Amino acid sequence: KRVRQSRSISHLARVHCRAMLPNKTRGEFTRNQRKDSEGQSEFPDLEFEYSDTDKWAAELSELYSYTEGPEFALNRKCFEEEFRVHVSDKKWTELDEAQHRAHAMRLLDSLEVTAREKRLKVARAILYMAQGTFAECSSEVEVQHWMRYNIFLLLDVGTFSALVELLNMEIDNSAACSSAVRKPAISLADSTDLRVLLNIMYMMVETIQQDDPADKPEWITIKETFRTELGSPLFNNEPISVMLFGMVTKFCSGHAPHFPMKKVLLLLWKSILFTLGGFERLQSIKVRKREELGLPPLPEDSIRVIRSMRAASPPASASDLIEQQQKRARREHKALIKQDNLDAFNEKDPYKADDSREDEDDNDDNDNSIEAETFPLERDEVMPPPIPHPPSERVSFPKGLPWAPKVREKDIENFLESSRSKFIGYTLGSDTDTVVGLPRPIHESIKTLKQHKYVSIAELQIIKEEEFQKTPLSGGEEEVETCATELLYQGILPSLPQYMIALLKILLAAAPTSKAKTDSINILADVLPEEMPTTVLQSMKLGVDVNRHKEIIVKAISAILLLLLKHFKLNHIYQFEYMAQHLVFANCIPLILKFFNQNIMSYITAKNSISVLDFPYCVVHELPELTAESLEAGDNNQFCWRNLFSCINLLRILNKLTKWKHSRTMMLVVFKSAPILKRALKVKQAMMQLYVLKLLKVQTKYLGRQWRKSNMKTMSAIYQKVRHRLNDDWAYGNDLDARPWDFQAEECALRANIERFNSRRYDKSHSNPDFLPVDNCLQSVLGQRVDLPEDFQMNYDLWLEREVFSKPISWEELLQ
């Protein structure tokens, strides 16, 4: 019933929208998106710069759904009622720092009252402070200034710890949970207390993690202390992220359907980002760790290389090329074209040979839903005319390829083994130094391979772990660095599989390709209003809000998963493998492919936002009257930042899961990912294209000669943009890895290694009894007190009779 009501609201939004927009296709609520039939050349390069987060204002606005709009005024009212009791003649912005601190302390004391209504009013007053006391500000910049000031003040007086305690109370509030479970439809009203607390906590974490050169020295100290506390087990003996993960699993289990999941996920993402660090910090940790391990420095800074890359023109589809040709024909000469030229073109139609094959492949792959993509022959009749660029716009490309090639030790061993067996007829195992009897060119090849040899941190960690397993006594104690990543892993280790399943369940429910099912979880609890929309405008606004809500959830989950995978991989490879394996077991690979099996350009250019309703714009400006036309127009952005960010994150996660894993790469082939990924190349953004090309590269040798022949432009793009692994036969099907694959055997072997690692490092209670010290003193052994269970004491006579008196004892043997 709960799901039915939320679906009926979405359905009503679509019905009203259809009434306003009769030309829209049936069953769709996508506003102002590009039509599929538009030519590929219509899509411009996207000026998108990948980062840890979007701009601060955008990240703040995404916390609030448009349905929560009226609550801004309510927060202000609660604050002013409390404020006027103590200060009657001045505004908040006119007080000095001592008065600000005194009032913040008063609010904090009032939070500890037992009456729920009074406590909620005080929490709303604190939220208004965190929102920058916006009624006294005239611009967004001023709001952001007061937000920063008020939040550092609130943190300094100890507000965050009090909020965590209140949040714990609300999580354990069984009355609210049971009430929500019984309700037929859940709305915003069911999660009011939770939303206010999570709003304040998110505003604090998001604001404090922003770097501002104008910050006072004491603020910088407060920030670093807060970062340490947030990642330490100070709250309930666990990091704050573990508590939020617990909320996610409780929500997914159906015991707390009223939890505002979008806010929980956003706070979880920002807590992980703040405590563990973003991509720049990851890079610096990697550089430091390589230095400590005595490894050579990284060949390049991958972040800078990717930022300097330019998008490639993706392979055009046949329909686009025909359309371009028709446009050009009409534009260039309206006179009749010579008949013999047309005949020649029809006789040698470059589409006929390849397109039929591609159509067949694509139809088989995805039930007619994937458009055929072919590449024209180099002929003037087919190729679109070159677009002239003024001299000032020319870009100078650096010579050579963007990435330095890499070689693994294993690749050198394989090369030497094959060379020895070919030229000499014997092998030397893992010896990579002996080159006796091999021809001169092989010597040069080995020299080149060794010049580009790359040893990763993960390889050294695996070798070290093997040594610990082989020599548990003489290996000594392992020194584990107690960093935020290690503390988080220890916190989520007992329930990590459940956390991964819960995140993927929510991701599935939020994906645009998912169909609403009766058994799927309802993620719209914190966006649906108490009353159903009654007008077309309200329905359109709610439709935008629901779509935006889902997009933000996808953004948060994709960022959480990627951050955790990257940090765990750097901390210890088996921590990464443990998380990655449980994602694979929870069907993460087909889920991401399902996500991309849509018109990805429409998703990236979707305009599911109403900029005049975004915080903080909506609280400092007079709101214009919304109309169906203004909602339909949307904003003027070329693309939706959060959707492009989500797509890149999901592609990166897919790369992390499949890299160097033969059985998982074969899953990409089995799930027919090539046509889905190839369509994603239409997005002209260099970073997204790079990760798509990486995924295509690992499976190219399994796709057959015909696919490679029909996709030479994609092959060229892979060659130009993806790092080369010397001796990697990725473009051909004659590699040693083109062997039968046993998914179960590979995953079981990996799982055994992970379990040994987790047991050795974290399971101190069940350590191997063979390695425990033995007490050889008879008196101390007999003198030990052994607590016997009650049932044993009651049946002691019976035990003596059965185990001692009734059994014959050979005293001679015993004494010997």
Key terms:
mainly alpha; about 0% strand; single chain; about 800 residues
> Based on helices, strands and strand pairing, what is the structural class?
mainly alpha
Number of helices: 39
Q: Kindly state the mean pLDDT as a whole number?
A: 83
Biggest sheet overview: none
Spans with pLDDT under 50 lasting ≥5 residues? Answer: 12-41, 333-398
GO cellular component, one term: cytosol
Region (Disordered): 23-44, 314-397
Keywords: Cytoplasm, Phosphoprotein
InterPro entries: Far11/STRP, Far11/STRP_C, Far11/STRP_N
Furnish the topology, listing elements before pairings.
Elements: H1 2-20, H2 56-61, H3 71-86, H4 97-110, H5 116-130, H6 140-156, H7 159-171, H8 174-182, H9 192-208, H10 217-231, H11 240-252, H12 261-276, H13 279-292, H14 302-308, H15 318-332, H16 339-347, H17 350-366, H18 409-423, H19 440-451, H20 457-470, H21 484-492, H22 496-510, H23 536-571, H24 573-585, H25 588-596, H26 600-604, H27 617-620, H28 628-633, H29 641-658, H30 662-670, H31 673-680, H32 686-699, H33 705-710, H34 712-721, H35 743-762, H36 778-783, H37 790-794, H38 796-805, H39 811-815
